[in-house]
User: Which sequence fits this backbone?
């Protein structure tokens, strides 16, 4: 009736309103509104992600800053230590001089001197920090002497004494927020210095507090931006490491050399950073040079008389000259030479004394070598002062150490290394290095290396698929043994001890064949099997005990419709709006199911909606994923290496990606998996012929194509932060990649092969940034963590 | 470790695209010297009928840690009725590892039986675990053995056996078995036998159907009584007619 009335009125001037028309209009409006709502929702989540990303970035920068401060502090401390030693030395030398005033006896005092220094060092080795205070006290008369002796043009000397004073007064370690202020601080006189250092201490503690607070994720890119500064710090730290090694003091001290840094801070810093950039191997040699430089010039001031040291002649056969260039021949490393030259612009170093110093170092080294372990020995050799090792040998050692470094950085995950950006700097064997590494790694966040934490053994055959709950620490695994198992990993991060035997929280039995694919969505588990069915299961209550009564209600539904193996199940990410489950089968189709009514909504084959099937099916789908930036699209990869995007509303093909570059008409070049980036218009594909390819959805073009594994790539997973992803392959390895640079950050060899099947699946937890899981042919699942608080 | 080596040789020979693979000790390649290397894996998208459809690999050429499992599965796939061949431990093979892998596979293949039983057997029908009326079995999966309904007993026993076989303390590796862990084999076998017994005496149709499909009982019986002395003949209460294969 109503429609009749409308139709009657239409001739009277009303526009052609008809009931269906109005309805249609309303529906359209409603749909439009709904669509917009979804879009807003997506935009909102996008922005949120972006926000947390930026926050994480900021925290990362702050962490970095704090670390740098720490390092400066360390270096300063070490510097002071060294200085004290020097003064002590000086004192003894002076004493000697008093004893032997005749210039003819030159050689003997020098030898004495060396002996003394050697002894001093060993002494230091035993009782570090406590003795320093004492020493400084006992040295005070000497200071005056020093000041008198010292050249007035050299502010450095003054600063030394001022440091002394400060130390003895305030008994506290100097804390300086920046290198600059640190330098200033050194020049402060007594009272002022104490006050200031207290202030700085406060600020520092504040920052430490901040640093300890659980931090967000660090972005690699941002750290890269900071690379310059990072490098210089790494130079610093390696400086510290090397020098300590040189002294071969295996205690907690950051011994000597660091003073180089804080004393001639800025200029040297820059020099270093430039050269350190090249390799970590080259930095040690620089240090050697600097090291040699620095100490001697102090000495020279103190004993201007002792210019000609016969011993040094013996060693180097170099003319006694004040010019640095003369020193260079024994040192083969040109870089070092440059460095040395630069440094000589500052107070001119005294050759003889430097050589003495070298000599001292040798004695130190020999004595220390006996006590230190192999690793240290090697490093000691490296850092022995220039003339002692023939230059060729030095180079060899350098090369060897570089090789070692490389190896390490590839293998990753050594305890005495830490990462910044992509680069891994090694602190060779020093405990100090390790402690540094710890502090460095804590803030490395994203860059932290993943370590295996747990092996889940309970499946009896190849484990093919994994899925994490979107928020809880629940893992679902599907295996060729016909079962899917649910693992409760809630204890992860709570208990320190590594648990070895974990029983699954539940074992889902029902499929009559291998379970090929699993997915958890909102407390419902979906499994696809070789038996052509998709099943849904309830997640049992967490209180469910092991070996409790069999509950038939755990089984929820069996989706029947496919006529061949179901290779992928994926529920829609927006669970509340779309009650959708997609399944891809080797019958050539993708089916969309309603998860509420269990109805089959539509069937897509290679060409789109099944209804307009005109051609034969060309290939079976291998994997499906939802396009995260437009959730009305589904991505499907095919055996013929093609990736297609379908619109789930219309069922039509939306896009076809040019991914079949290397397809050779066999499944040996197929795509195994395709994933969509959570926030960027990016799709990544894993190919059986070892490639990983990147596609821009906006342009539909392939951005990058790289050989990623030694065998077929089976699986990909993007870290929740969106800046790195993991890949697994039949070469049994798992690799972590950076998305922006496409460089491999880490490689882990984990699973063993069954036939030619290695790793079948890798999966990051979708919201917790420190959990990674993998599974493979050896019937096990493994959990990795990067040690962040959960 | 051998795994890694194997990987390396694989890639080397592939890169060389090698006619030299004959010299190469890599056994995977030996099989197909001049042909393209056969890759044995079930890639995503494979049809069910193509599942595991690859040329057989001889046992000597299997060198991964899963070799024994691979080989037994191959034998079962070849002919599930050829019990003797399946169960007999090949020469040079550690019989303990052989038993271990067989038990794993028996647990795996009991899955379908559990599924079939769970449709028929529920606490209302079988509230206690019995075979004949002589004895009731207590479920050993719990910290303290307790009476469970038959279906719970069956599931718990299989789950418990799987857990035990995967227990790091007893079976840290699949390559060798600690002598102290051998005692568990007979425990597991004895308990699993009861599941068969219950099915035979209380769910005959299920048992017969399952046995026709898999011949698992025949294999289990031969394995645990004839080939290896895991259960004493006294315990065997299922009549011989249950076995559709005569292996004597």
Assistant:
């Amino acid at each position: 009736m109503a429609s009749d009335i409308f139709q009657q009125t239409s001739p009277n001037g009303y526009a052609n309103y008809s009931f269906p028309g109005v309805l249609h209009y309303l529906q359209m409006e409603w749909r439009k509104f709904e669509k917009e709502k979804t879009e807003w929702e997506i935009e909102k989540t996008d922005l949120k992600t972006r926000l947390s990303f930026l926050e994480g970035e900021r925290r990362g920068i702050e962490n970095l800053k704090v670390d740098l401060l720490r390092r400066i502090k360390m270096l300063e401390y070490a510097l002071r230590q060294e200085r004290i030693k020097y003064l002590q030395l000086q004192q003894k030398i002076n004493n000697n001089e008093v004893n032997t005033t005749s210039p003819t006896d030159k050689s003997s005092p020098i030898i004495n001197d060396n002996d003394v220094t050697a002894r001093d060092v060993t002494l230091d080795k035993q009782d570090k920090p406590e003795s320093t205070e004492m020493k400084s006290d006992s040295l005070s008369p000497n200071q005056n002497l020093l000041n008198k002796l010292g050249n007035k043009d050299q502010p450095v000397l003054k600063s030394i004494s001022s440091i002394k004073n400060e130390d003895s007064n305030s008994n506290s370690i100097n804390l300086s927020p920046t290198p600059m202020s640190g330098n200033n601080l050194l020049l402060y006189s007594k009272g002022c210095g104490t006050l200031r250092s207290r202030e700085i201490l406060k600020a520092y503690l504040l920052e430490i507090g901040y640093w300890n607070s659980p931090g967000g994720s660090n972005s690699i890119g941002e750290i890269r931006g900071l690379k310059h500064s990072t490098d210089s710090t790494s130079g610093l730290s390696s400086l510290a490491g090397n020098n300590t090694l040189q002294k071969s003091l295996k205690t907690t001290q950051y011994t000597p050399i660091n003073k180089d840094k804080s004393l001639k801070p800025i200029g040297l810093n820059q020099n270093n950073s430039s050269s350190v950039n090249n390799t970590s191997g080259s930095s040690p040699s620089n240090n050697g040079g600097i090291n040699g430089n620095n100490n001697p010039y102090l000495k020279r001031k103190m004993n201007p008389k002792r210019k000609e040291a016969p011993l040094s002649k013996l060693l180097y056969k170099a003319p006694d000259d004040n010019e640095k260039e003369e020193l260079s021949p024994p040192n083969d490393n040109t870089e070092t030479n440059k460095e040395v030259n630069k440094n000589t612009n500052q107070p001119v170093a005294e050759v003889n004394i430097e050589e003495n110093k070298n000599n001292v170092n040798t004695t130190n080294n020999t004595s220390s070598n006996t006590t230190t372990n192999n690793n240290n020995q090697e490093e000691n050799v490296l850092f022995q002062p220039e003339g002692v090792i023939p230059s060729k040998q030095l180079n060899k050692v350098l090369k060897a150490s570089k090789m070692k470094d490389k190896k390490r950085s590839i293998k990753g995950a050594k305890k005495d290394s830490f990462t910044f950006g992509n680069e891994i700097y090694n602190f060779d064997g020093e405990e100090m290095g390790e402690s540094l590494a710890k502090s460095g790694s804590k803030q490395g966040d994203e860059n932290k290396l993943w370590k295996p934490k747990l092996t889940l053994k309970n499946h009896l055959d190849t484990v093919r698929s994994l899925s994490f709950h979107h928020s809880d620490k629940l893992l679902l695994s599907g295996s060729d043994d016909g079962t899917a198992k649910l693992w409760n990993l809630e204890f992860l991060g709570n208990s320190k001890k590594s648990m070895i035997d974990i029983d699954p929280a539940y074992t889902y039995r029902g499929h009559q064949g291998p379970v090929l694919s699993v997915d958890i969505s909102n407390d419902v588990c979906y499994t696809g099997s070789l038996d052509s069915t998709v099943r849904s299961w309830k997640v049992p209550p967490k209180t469910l005990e092991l070996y409790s009564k069999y509950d038939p209600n755990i089984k929820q539904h069996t989706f029947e419709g496919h006529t061949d193996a179901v290779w992928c199940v994926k529920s829609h990410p927006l669970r509340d709006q779309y009650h959708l489950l997609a399944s891809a089968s080797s019958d050539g189709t993708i089916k969309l199911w309603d998860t509420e009514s269990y109805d089959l909504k539509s069937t897509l084959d290679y060409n789109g909606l099944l209804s307009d099937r005109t051609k034969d099916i060309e290939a079976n789908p291998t994997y499906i994923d939802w396009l995260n930036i437009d959730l009305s699209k589904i991505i499907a990869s095919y055996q013929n290496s093609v990736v297609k995007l379908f619109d789930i509303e219309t069922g039509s093909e939306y896009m076809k990606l040019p991914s079949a570059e290397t397809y050779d008409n066999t499944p040996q070049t197929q795509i195994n998996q395709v994933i969509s980036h959570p926030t960027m218009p990016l799709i990544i594909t894993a190919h059986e012929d070892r490639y990983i390819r990147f596609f821009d959805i906006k342009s539909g073009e392939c951005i990058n194509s790289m050989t990623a594994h030694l065998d077929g790539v089976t699986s990909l997973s993007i870290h929740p932060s969106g800046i790195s992803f993991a890949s697994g392959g039949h070469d049994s390895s798992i690799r972590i990649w950076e998305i922006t640079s496409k460089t491999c950050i880490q490689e882990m060899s984990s699973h063993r092969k069954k036939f030619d099947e290695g790793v079948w699946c890798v999966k990051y937890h979708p919201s917790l940034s420190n959990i990674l899981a993998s599974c493979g042919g050896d019937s096990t699942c493994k959990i990795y963590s990067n040690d962040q608080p959960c | 470790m051998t795994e890694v080596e194997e990987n390396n040789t694989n890639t080397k020979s592939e890169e060389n695209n090698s006619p030299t693979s004959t010299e190469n000790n890599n056994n995977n390649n030996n099989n197909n010297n001049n042909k393209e290397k056969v890759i044995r894996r079930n890639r995503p998208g494979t049809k069910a009928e193509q599942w595991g459809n690859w040329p057989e690999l001889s046992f000597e050429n299997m060198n991964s840690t899963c070799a024994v499992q691979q080989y037994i599965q191959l034998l079962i796939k070849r002919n599930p009725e050829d019990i003797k061949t399946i169960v007999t431990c090949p020469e040079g093979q550690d019989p303990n590892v052989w038993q271990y892998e067989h038990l794993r596979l028996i647990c795996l293949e009991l899955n379908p039986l559990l599924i079939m039983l769970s449709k028929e057997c529920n606490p209302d029908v079988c509230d206690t675990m019995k075979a004949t009326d002589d004895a009731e079995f207590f479920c050993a999966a719990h910290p303290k053995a307790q009476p469970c309904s038959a279906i719970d007993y069956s599931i718990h026993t299989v789950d418990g056996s799987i857990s035990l076989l995967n227990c790091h303390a007893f079976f840290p590796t699949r390559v060798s078995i600690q002598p102290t862990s051998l005692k568990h084999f007979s425990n597991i076998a004895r308990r699993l036998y009861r599941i068969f017994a219950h099915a035979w005496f209380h769910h005959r149709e299920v048992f017969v159907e399952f046995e026709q499909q898999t011949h698992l009982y025949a294999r289990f019986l031969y394995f645990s009584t004839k080939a290896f002395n895991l259960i004493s003949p006294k315990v065997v209460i299922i009549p011989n007619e249950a076995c559709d294969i005569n292996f004597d």
Summary: Residues 1-64 of chain B form one domain. Chain B touches chain A through 53 residues (CB under 8 Å).
